[in-house]
Each structure stands twice: as C-alpha cells, then as structure tokens.
Amino acid sequence: MNKSKKIYLDYAATTPVDKKVLDTMLPYFSEDFGNAMSVHGFGQEALEAVDEARAKAALFFKCSPSEIIFTSGATESNNLVVKGSLRSYNSVARKAEEKPHIITTAFEHHCVLDACKFAQKDGLAEVTFIKPNKEGLISVKDIKEAIKPSTILVSVMYVNNEIGTVQPIAEIGKLLKKVNAERLDAKLPKISFHTDATQAINYFNCDIDEIGVDLLSMSAHKIYGPKGVGLLYIRKNTPIKRIQDGGDQEYKMRAGTHNVPGIVGLGEAINAIKTPATQKKIKEITALRDYLIKRVLKEIPKSYLNGSVEKRSPNNANFRFDDVEGEGLILSLDLDGIAASTGSACSSGALDPSHVLLSLGLRHEQAHGSLRLTIGKSTTKKDLDIVIIKIKEIVKRLRKISGNVLADFK
User: Helices 276-299 and 381-408 meet at what angle, rounded to 10?
Assistant: First the structure.
C-alpha cells in the first residue's frame, strides 16, 4: 500500500475506535481491571461498568436492560439465535416428524446463512431461503407465503452488508405479530423474528417495539467501537436456549468472563449515535454517497449500481463494471493507498463470486466485477474526487488488458 496518502473507504468492514470511546475504555485495562463476577470491590466496580453499558444499550433500543446480552460480536449473536432457537424447540417433547422450519434470506451474512445450511444438512431443521428481487429487496409477501405450521424463526438482515439495501423489517414485524396471534389460537409454536442489525445501527430506527423484532444482533466495531464485542437483544419470553456451557454470566445465556473494556466501549459508542453531531454527520455522509454514485455512473462507461437507489444505507455505494474483475480493481486501488472491498471473496485458494450478487440474478462474470465503497465520518469530498480519478484510470487499464487477453483466444 502507498504510505504517502491513504484513503479508507471500507467502513462497512470496520470503523476506527472513536477517541472518546477509547478514553472511556482505557481505565478498564489497567486500573479498574476486575472480573465483573467477583464479589470484591474490584469486581463490583467492573460489574457497575457493565451494568451502565447495558443501560445505555437498553435506552438506545428502548427495551429492558435484562433483555440485553453481551457477546463477542454479531457472529456469535447470530449463531446463538439460530442454534439456540433450535435447541429450545428440541428441548420440548415433540413428534419425530415435527422438524422445525426456519425462514431466512439468500443473501444473509454467512454466519446466519451457514448456520442455517448446516442445521438443514444435519437434519435439525428445514430452511427456506427467500431470494431478493433484482434491486436487493425482500418481499413481505414472500415471507408470508413461506410460513408453515412448523415455522419457529424468521431471520432477515436489516441492511445488507455488501450492497447496503434496507429491508422492510417493520413491515415483516407487523406481519408476524398478526400471524403469531392466529397461531396462538391454533396452539402452534410462536415464530421468533430476528434481524441482524449490524449495518443498520448507525443509520436506522432500532426501537424494538416499532420494528417488531424479538431478537436483534450487532457488533460494536461497526459503530466506532472496539472489535470483539457485540450484543444480542432477546425479548422476554422468546424461546431460545444457551449454546455454550460454562459460567452463568449474561442471565445464564452466554458463558465466559465479561470483556469489560469492550462492553464499556460498546456502551459509549451506542450512546453517541443519537447525538446532534452524529445525526448531522449522517446527512453529510448521505450527500457524499450520492455524489460518488452520480459521478461514477456518469463518468465510467458500462458501470452499474448494485442494489436499490432509494432503499439504501447512507454510506454504501456498490458498483459493478463490465469487463473488469473485482479483485484486480481492489488490489490496484490498494497499491494507490485506497482501501475498498469487493463482493468477490478469495476462499480456499479459489476466487468465488459474491453470493449476494448472485442472489440478485447477476451472472458469475458480473458478480466478479463489483466494488464496494463505504463512507465514514472522516471521508471528505476531496477523498472521493481522488478515488474517482483512480477508479477511472484503473478500469480503463484493466479493460485494455482484458481485451488483449480475450483477443489472444480468438
């Protein structure tokens, strides 16, 4: 990477820790280092810090503090949702043929997608994977039509992590509230509604009752907090069981010593989201995103925006370019000191196209030519001007190389 000038446009991957967040965390690494489960003074001070962070999270989500479970991040939270829901269902004596049914989407984060796939492969559940439309949006009607008497869980991400499209979470919540009222009379199991809100916390309404979810997961490092900590909101009386054995931390739902500095950082980061300064910054980020999208689509031939224009996260711009391979574009940008990402992923030595882009109906070669640029608090218009110039140069160069290679096979 070019060390002289670095531009970071991968805020959907992770964010820097805000200075105020870091300053709040620091004492819990050295001075107030107690184990929050210890009964002595050091432990009680740590527990007070954990409780304060829990209260901040509860205030943000407008729920009870006892409904907030701290975890190591959204991946753990999402695994707890899928596996814990199945464990709860299977703990009740049922007929062997009553296999639980889960509804999720075809473009979830892999921690949800793979947990569901493995459950289905192991014969623990039947899973329906709802495909989005070409705009990257899930239909409430498709969710409704997929519901079966054996359905126990619906899991739909709030904002897609790759293309930034915003799903109709509140509408699905209203649907399931009505469906569950009818199922209660029919003595059918309650359908729990989960959303992975990792990419939504910074920008969208996460009032638990207004969006109608029973379970919500997130990670602190997406909101200018530390890595390695997150939470799971669990509505009271939601059928879910722990999947870890060990201590009785987190209301007996998640074993393991509390990451006190991380939890404190999460609390401080989430507390900053609704401040006037943050809300002002969101408007600035949205304007920068629109500026970026407009210029790229106008100035680069055969360029396209992946996902809906209107129902989109304020910080996300995901493009694809004909005759350009995404990894080559990302590596070239990196050499110029620009950090971005692509829908393609290098897995087991083989380059695979993004499952998200394939779910939109794109061909493999189209899914390979994607570029995700995600904006953050420190991004400037000047940064974007530099990046746009570089993208134009690199796309032109890669297309020339691609054309020469193809010519050799003719």
Answer: 30
Number of residues in the chain: 410
Distance CA 190, CA 260 (A): 35
Bridge partners of residue 318, in order along the sequence: 372
- The residues pairing with 102 across neighbouring beta strands, listed in sequence order, are 127, 153
Q: How buried is residue 51: exposed, middle or buried, by Cβ count under 10 Å (0-12/13-18/19+)?
A: middle
> What residues are annotated to the active site?
346
Task: Answer whether residue 259 shows pLDDT above 90.
Answer: yes
CATH superfamily of the domain spanning 7-16+275-408: Aspartate Aminotransferase, domain 1 (3.90.1150.10)
User: Over the stretch 291-301, which tens digit does the pLDDT of each residue have?
Assistant: 999 999 999 99
Look up the pTM and report it: 0.94
| Whole-angstrom distance, CA of residue 161 vs CA of residue 356 | 9
Q: What is the rounded distance in angstroms from the CA atom of residue 297 to the CA atom of residue 220?
A: 33
- Tell me which CATH code domain 19-271 carries: 3.40.640.10
Domains of the chain by residue range: 7-16+275-408, 19-271
Contact 35/258 with Cβ under 8 angstroms? yes
Q: Is there a shared CATH topology between the 7-16+275-408 domain and the 19-271 domain?
A: no
Angle between helices 110-121 and 74-90 (to 10 degrees): 30
